[in-house]
Amino acid sequence: MRVARLLFPALRWDERTGFDGAAESVERALELGVGGFIVFGGEADTVREVIAGIRSRSAEPLLIGADLERGAGQQFRGATPLPPLAALGALDDLDATRRSGELTAREARSLGVDWIYAPVADLDIEPRNPIVGTRAFGADPGRVGAQLAAWIEGCRAGGALSCAKHFPGHGRTTSDSHLALPVVTAGRDELEVDLAPFRRAIEAGVDSIMTAHVSYPALDPSGAPATLSPRIITRLLREELGFDGLVVTDALIMEGVRGGEGGEVSAAVRALQAGCDLLLYPDDPAAVAREVEAAVGGVLSEERVAEALERLDRAARRAAGWRGESGWGRESDRSWALELAVRTIHVARGEPISLAGRSIELYTIDDDVGGPFPPPARDVFPAKLRELGVVGGEGAVGGGADAVPVIALYADIRGWKGRPGLSARAVAEVDKVLAMRPGALVVLFGHPRLAAEIPGEVPVVVAWGGEALAQEAAAVWSVRER
Questions:
Q1: Is the CB of residue 309 less than 8 Å from the CB of residue 6?
Q2: Catalytic residue among 114, 176, 250, 333
Q3: Is 194 noted as a catalytic residue in this protein?
Q4: How far apart are CA 232 and CA 169, in angstroms?
Q5: Fewer beta carbons within 10 Å, N or C terminal of the chain?
Q6: What's the pTM value of the predicted model, to 2 decimals?
Q7: Catalytic residue from among 140, 178, 284, 313
Q8: Domains of the chain, with CATH numbers?
Q9: 313 assigned to active site
């Protein structure tokens, strides 16, 4: 059987070598006969060229996926970035959410990506959650469901396959499944709240659903992560919720699924047994393919593999039929995205003045440094302020005695942190600045609830995240009259 078709290894761009460093592993994966790839990063022009080359060398149609929760610009330089889903949810403009899904899909398809691992269907209901936060539309299941449906409709109009994640809900976890197996102790009645957005996504015709590497004893007393649980995938998702589309695992490199005996090769077989169709981001595709092949006819039935292959082929045929318009990074789309981001900026505390025509002293406090990947550059915010006529500089070399002190506080969701809130170091740095300049304005590039952790009674403006789009939007908002 064509079991390697069920594997979707990673194709990751590197700052030093581009995609060249992945060339050998891509060729091995194509020889193995994988069903597609998940692509991370790269210049848009190069991404399109590389994907086209990969498709031309594959004996069968491929699906190419990417994590594009915040637009195609989240991964691909030159494409259009969008605000995080939490910002869209707070704006509560379904037309804007629908257009966001359509724009993401249209640009993705233009680059050769036909499967988008979005939208996030988790609920942002646990303040201690270190991995969901601004990635979710919000906490209210009804409003989140409406946002999901709008985004999925837009994605379909743009020609790409959508993927609701992470089933049956990652919103109650207090640890990150990249690092360990989280356990959600909520009862079935509570978990019905978490399931509601997925029900709405299924009603809206979502193409695929991604599983959570999370244990839910109320749904499966064995304690197995949802990805490996027949009770959760087959009985709940397939039979009770009636979903017949593709089910894809979250990344197999994550400790939440590979931490048990046998590692990822054992997890791959168990995931297929449980009812998953596709295996995302295996670390060793050849070893996983061998293990799955050996299991067919034994612990893994031929019928189960055939079913998974049929769903994959059906999705690939549907994706291959796209004949939409091409193009990415258009000025009109970028302008719309910026104005959308400006609309999502809001005041969490106090009454900040407009910075139009003012001088400032800028204090940058970055709580996103130290992880495996460098955070985005922090120069967009001050550069855009200067472009808009605001003068001044960093700290003591700022705009003089009458300058407005501004603290740019970066505190995005990052799995490696293992925490959702501000670090003690960041709070201490804010305190230090406020001791010198008690009248400072804080621009928080993070989740609105982090405003409660900022000392003092200074005004706090929320910009949701630290990406370039958010920095630009915060600068534009800061100079508008209120």
A1: yes
A2: 250
A3: no
A4: 11
A5: C
A6: 0.95
A7: 178
A8: 3-320 (3.20.20.300), 345-478 (3.40.50)
A9: no
